[in-house]
Amino acid sequence: MLEGGDFSSFGPSFLADQTRGELQWRDLPRDRDEARRCVRQSCPESPGVYGWLNAERQLIYVGKAKALRHRILGYLARTTADPKMARIRAASTALVWEPIADELLALLREQELIHRWRPEFNSQGQPTRRQPAFLCISDSAAPHVFLAKRLASSGYQQAFGPIAGTQRLADSVQALNYVFGLRDCADKTKFEFGDQLRLFDEESRAGCLRFELGSCPGPCAALCTRPIYLERVARAGQFLMEGNQAFLQQLEARMVRAAEHRHYERAAMLRDQLESLKRLERQLQRLRVAERTINGILPVTVNRGRQVWLAFRGARLISSVVQPRSRQQAVRALAELSRVERESVPPAREILEINLQLIIAAWFRKHPGRLADLRDFPTIQAECAELQQRYASRAAVEPNSKPAFS
Hints:
Elements: E1 24-27, H1 32-42, E2 48-53, E3 59-65, H2 68-75, H3 83-90, E4 94-99, H4 103-117, E5 133-138, E6 145-148, E7 156-163, H5 166-179, H6 210-213, H7 226-242, H8 245-260, H9 264-293, E8 296-301, E9 307-313, E10 316-322, H10 327-342, H11 351-366, H12 377-397
Antiparallel strand pairs: 1-4, 2-3, 2-4, 5-6, 5-7, 8-9, 9-10
């Protein structure tokens, strides 16, 4: 567990307070039937997050649930659905839970807590394990595709991601540089192009075998011109940005021809490259769809019918705005919604932001019907302006009335 000392609360959240209930704590009896009665009597059926504590009052596992009571009772069953659940229960002496207004918010809160506490029984979502990454096109004299687990402020001209599966992404980087004819040598390599003026007319040789194999045009030895090389970079960028099924079909045809001519090693290499690029294209297409479609306001109903407006841009949760109940609240809400709609959204750089974006994209992919619940920014802004006018009119008629805060 990252944070030391006895556990006392989950801690603050980027989610609006109105979306979260109070933290509940129960010391569970060792007797299974008695523990189940305790959970049935006190645990709600609402979505939420829960945590198991050991005898030292350390948080050893965090989970989320669509229905807290049902999920927690699963840990107390005579035979658990997963052996890990039994191990967690055996190592625990207490249980905590926090009701959340919506299943998606419970997922995001779970990831936030795993990132903060890093419980020993949580394998997924840990900030130091199985991290997603980005595919980048460098901004060097001879650009190429490279893998980055974090986006720096410089060193690249385009970035695509985040994408899960670092090892497979490394294979995709190698395939991209090979099939588009881009260099993969170190950035410290000195590059010069054939259209550059040279003081001495000396013969240059490529620094590796890829030029001889025809997979690199040799920008390290003035064996190609800058326009020819940059055209290859543009084709690679276009593939990553938009996809190119025609290119994949051409690559498949080359593989078939190599097999027909009994060039089996080349056919096998092309097969591996094709499979890697097809897998990458599927991942990128899912990301493109998510960034294009998950934009707008998702209303989530909290207590007494009040709503919290979740503002999404490019499959990222940018802000949460509580439905106003006074003129002053309406003014602030309208300003915040206008800011979120107006400002550009930089790429996710921190691991928590990256994981949250992937979770949001996956959740909407699993629940496509919820995309229809997204409302555009102008509609919510108009509703907010109407509330502002309504409260202003009410204040003019009843000057001594108090604003309805809650």
